[in-house]
Write a structure and sequence with these properties.
The longest helix is centred in the first third of the chain and has 12 residues, at 26-37. With 231 residues, this protein is mostly beta strands. The protein has one helix and eight strands; from the N terminus they run αββββββββ.
């Protein structure tokens, strides 16, 4: 399950995702709200409609310790791209397939000068429920089930050999994704969605690198309807 680098010793368990935080999109969302409120028109979801969509999330977090006894810092970067193809089987329910790409990296002196990178691709199925709230606004509840393949890489400096040691592994697992969000229809064919989703690992391979069983993620996306819809 994966290959080792220049050393045969196993790395200590390091939380690749220990830096998981609620990704701050307040500024972007506030700008979006001010824009969409200025738009007019009324949209109504119609059954038997295909739609393509994509969610996007990016975050960078720079942390510096204020504890004199434990000095140091680290930097965290995270990227998610998640395109989807859905079909509305009714005015409220959409089902379909999804593809995802995730890249994240953490490095810094607070984690012993290590560099930890995870890349993954996944494919899965989803169901979404849309509930109208006010004009052009819908509340969303979603459920995704996906199969994901991860490539983990862990690099650190070995003071005994004086060289950089790299460990790699490749694993697969299954992920359950539950989310709530808000959709705004700019016009009858395009909507913008803000989602908060909770990811849980429900099965798959064991990993040398410690990966948490759950995490929370916020993302911004859009949806385009492929066929004409009535207002």
């Amino acid at each position: 399950m994966g290959s080792l680098g220049t050393s045969t010793c196993q790395p200590e368990r390091v939380d690749i995702f220990f830096y998981n935080q609620i990704y701050d999109m307040k500024t972007l969302f506030s700008t979006l709200v001010l824009y969409v409120i200025s738009l007019s028109g009324s949209a109504q979801i119609q059954p038997y409609t295909f739609a393509v969509s994509s969610n996007f999330s990016y975050s960078r977090n720079d942390f510096e310790s204020t504890n004199a006894a434990v000095p140091g810092d680290y930097t965290t970067k995270f990227l998610l791209i998640e395109p989807k193809l859905g079909f509305f089987i009714s005015k409220r329910f959409s089902v379909g397939g999804t593809f995802s790409y995730v890249w994240n990296n953490t490095s810094g002196s607070l984690i012993g000068g290590r560099d930890i990178t995870n890349k993954s691709i996944g494919r899965g199925v989803f169901v979404k429920y849309y509930q109208p709230i006010v004009k052009n606004f819908y509340a969303i509840a979603g459920l995704d089930f996906s199969w994901t393949k991860h490539w983990n890489e862990y690099t650190s400096f070995d003071p005994f050999s004086g060289s950089t040691v790299t460990f790699e592994e490749e694993i697969t697992n299954t992920i359950l994704q539950r989310g709530l969000g808000l959709a705004y229809f700019i016009n009858k064919n395009i909507s913008i969605e803000l989602m908060g989703e909770y990811f849980t690992v429900v099965g798959g391979d064991k990993t040398t690198f410690y990966t948490p069983e759950s995490r929370l993620l916020f993302s911004l996306g859009f949806q385009i309807y492929l066929f004409e819809r009535s207002e």
